[in-house]
Amino acid sequence: DMKTDLNLLLECLKYQMDCPLSQKEALITIYSICQQNSEASEYFREIGGLMFINDLAKSSVHCIVKEAALFTLGIIIESNVYCQQTLCTSALFEDLILFLINKDSGVNLKRMSVYVILVLVSNNRNGQTFVRDTGCISLLLQLFRTTLCTPGLGVSAAGAAQCYELWCSVCSTLCACVNNPQNEDNQNICCSVFPYAKEWLESCTEPDILRPICSFVGLTAANNTYVQKYFVSIGGLDTLAKVLLELMHDSCLSPSGTKLAVVVTKTLDACIANNSALGGVLAKYHTVSQLLKLLCNETLNTGEKVSIILTIGHCTEVCEENQCELLQNNGLPLMIQVLTESQDEELIKAATFVLQNCKQMTEQLSLKINDNSLNVNNAEELDVEARKRSLQDYWKKAKEILHRINLIEQEQDEQRVQGGVFADASSVANSEALKAHEVNPADPKMYMERTQKEVPRPQQTLKLDDQVLVPSVNCPPRKNEPVNTVGAASARQSDQSHVPCPETEVQTDSVPQSHRTNDKTAPGKNQPLPQTRQVHWCMITMTKEGHIFLVGFFLPHLDQHSFCSKITRKDRSTSATSSSHKMADLRCLGCTAGGLSFNSKTFTKMLQSCLHQCDHHKVILEAEERYRREL
Q1: Do residues 101 and 162 both lie within one domain?
Q2: Is the pTM here over 0.70, yes or no?
Q3: Which residues, including other chains, have CB under 8 Å from residue 421's CB and lie 6 or more apart?
Q4: DSSP 497
Q5: Would you say residue 59 has pLDDT above 50?
Q6: Cα–Cα dist 98/89, whole Å
Q7: What's residue 287's pLDDT?
Q8: Which of 20, 283, 311, 357 is the most buried (most CB within 10 A)?
């Protein structure tokens, strides 16, 4: 029975005061029963055994009894929180200080005293406060500075091993004083020994030394911007980066080197996590590329990968150089691979963190990577900014031009309505169309007046510098038919370079000589109409002063032989009033308006005003209606 055994062992301690070996054996048996047994530890406290061992540690004159008593106290405190609260007093911390400063105390006794301090402050804010208020933490820092130097003073191998164990215990205790829960006051005190830690990092990369120092530095700097800045100011972050660089050369051959590199990585992360601007210090050591190389190691477990990716994330959070290094070393594809292939939630969050950091600057950095240099001159930087604004400028100018075109078309529509261009009587429209067809295109004055009357409605715009190309239903002159319009003349005067208008045309016959503007003779009334169907672009030219010149073109002469029946001038004059309403003629306003200039809007209105359309223009209207419904 556990309770019976503890009662008998306690009685043995009380009645064996003159036999230190028997007391030591009883103490060893007690901690073996109470170790990791909260119920046994609690019962031992209830029967008064905890306080008796505490008094025994202070009063015994035998060193072996003191050491065994302190070790048993530590085991019981660690096993039961009520025992920790019972012994967590300033009096006990003061007694432990006496053990540490006593010159007669051996290294092993000091190590047992440090162990009791460790279990008193672990997960205990009250213990962290007592260790600071009693001055115990200052004594621990002194041991941190001096104990590790003892082996270099001619101490034996056994003594050096004991000193190292004491130093490791001190490191662990200091870590418990500043962390879990985090204690900023203790962190600010403990950072005073960072210069010593930096010296050891520079002089020794042995795992037995490097691991405790990295743990102490990392926990002391965690979530404390003041401590982080101080560590960077003394060159500690540079030292860690150099250590990582050195370890990475050995990690390919040594698995232990890989594990140690992960420890250093965690320490680096703790030193920059709350102040990502400090990550810029690591850029000159190419830390990000080393971390990516370490991440590809197949021996890493999930937790180690998470730590490495988080460190990469903090390095690239605000530092452009580290972001560039991440891109140059294929870091983004690696993060995406982790994001898509991993099933671990923490690993996915870490990879997402890295991708979010680099999202905003990916485009800018990719342009700089192409130059293989981060030190671009001012002209190149301005060029990058200009490229980023190009799309915005394009849409802005396009919208302005379209707005002006709409205003011009509205004014022209109003003028046409007032002028009675679209008459309801088809006979009047036919006569006007015939008169308009008789205008000599070779006459520059008449030609210029006609080209200035209409502005084609753009369906879509294409921008190139300050010129906008607008698709139109109106046809420009052919390449061998130059037209001296107002828009073209003004564009030449403003030294604007014209962009060729792309065109798509289907020709069934050549254009008659009478329809060329460079011909000196006017066309005859009975000359046949050209048999050409074309779809061209209309060009809008913007000058530097902001003026817009629009070049309009004639409506194409449709193939009347293919779609409309032939009709002579005699038939047209004799049946202008009677046969205009008959379907047998298969004639409409679209067929007889070959010489007029229209845009897509006015031409459609003219066809709609006609009571009877020919088959050709009826198909055109139906196709346009279907297109509008789809839009």
Answers
A1: yes
A2: no
A3: 432, 602
A4: P
A5: yes
A6: 15
A7: 94
A8: 311
